Sequence to fold (369 residues):
Amino acid sequence: MTDTSNPTDTQWPVFEVFHQQARGEPHVHVGSVHATDPEMALLMAKEQFARRQACVNLWVVPASAITATKYEDDDIFEHGTDKSYRESWGYKTPKTIHVTKKESQQ
Amino acid sequence: MMTTYDALGELRGDVKHAVIDLLYRLADDELVIGHRDSEWTGLAPILEEDVAFSSMAQDEMGHALTYYRLLHELGEADPDTLAFTRKPRQFRCCSFVSLPSTRDWALSLMRQFLYDAQESVRLAALTTSTVTPLAEVARKLRGEEKYHLMHGRTWVLRLGNSTDEAHEKMQAALNSAYPHALGMFEPTEANEVLAQSGVCPREEELCHQWESAVAPVLTDAGLAVPANARPIHGGRVGTQPAALAELLEGMQLVHSSDPSAQW
Fold:
């Protein structure tokens, strides 16, 4: 949200924008916009991120609603021992049912 | 049962003349408001809105081109000639669209909202026009115009209900815009023919629908619709304000410096 500790910051709150190219596809993060509220954020997002590519749906999420890990803690993602048995090679892991259907038709 | 015109080439006589009159009004409105809105490119209050407003200006230009192409099919000059070589008195846009923005964001937003509400009402009616190519164009353009109206409505509601300063600016914009906005529905000689042949409803009817559409939004925005506003007419018969001449001088400058240049 707006940084109230800095009175010269007149920027509106940040909303993260997620774009869906076709029904059934996942929403993909494409960037962010400044806006006063979610409805305004959708209006702005439409012109910033959906004017050059196909789009069927947009999500906007207040950046303040996102909780993230710290990069300094990225060692938590490392594997201390061999975990290759967890990897999904050899399995089909389609993104969506839509994609599975398409593949099964081929 | 009314005659349906599946191709523009089937139009004859009075109906053809009336359709040409309508298309000039539609095209010139779009071209001129598109140009006015583009004056905000690089200057709009926030970056995101700069992109959005510029993008809508491009949409309007695209719609103008679509209508000019229909006119060309009906035997009028090609789109570039129509846009870049006609004199102000040959334009059929309403005075509302050429009204200078004078860096007044409230006025530009208010105009965009009132104008797009008019387009929304008119395009909805044109989707059932007896002139099939016009009905098809209306259906195609409605998506973009739907966004334009969402955009205008959202801004008007936000600013009307915002600080005292914003509210006052929006009310002042509404007061000065409204008589011009009513002029969007100036009836021409084509009015009756267009209505009787099922091409486009009478301007009075469209104006009534438009008033019913904008009034609730303006009220929700805490704004007072000017009472007894008198429409400013003239544009639809080529009696244009000096503002249009100035606008065209700038818009046509590059083309008139070398009309034979290829782009």
Summary: The longest strand of chain A covers residues 14-20. The helical segments of chain A are 38-49, 97-105. The beta strands of chain A are 14-20, 28-34, 57-62. Chain A has a mean pLDDT of 84.
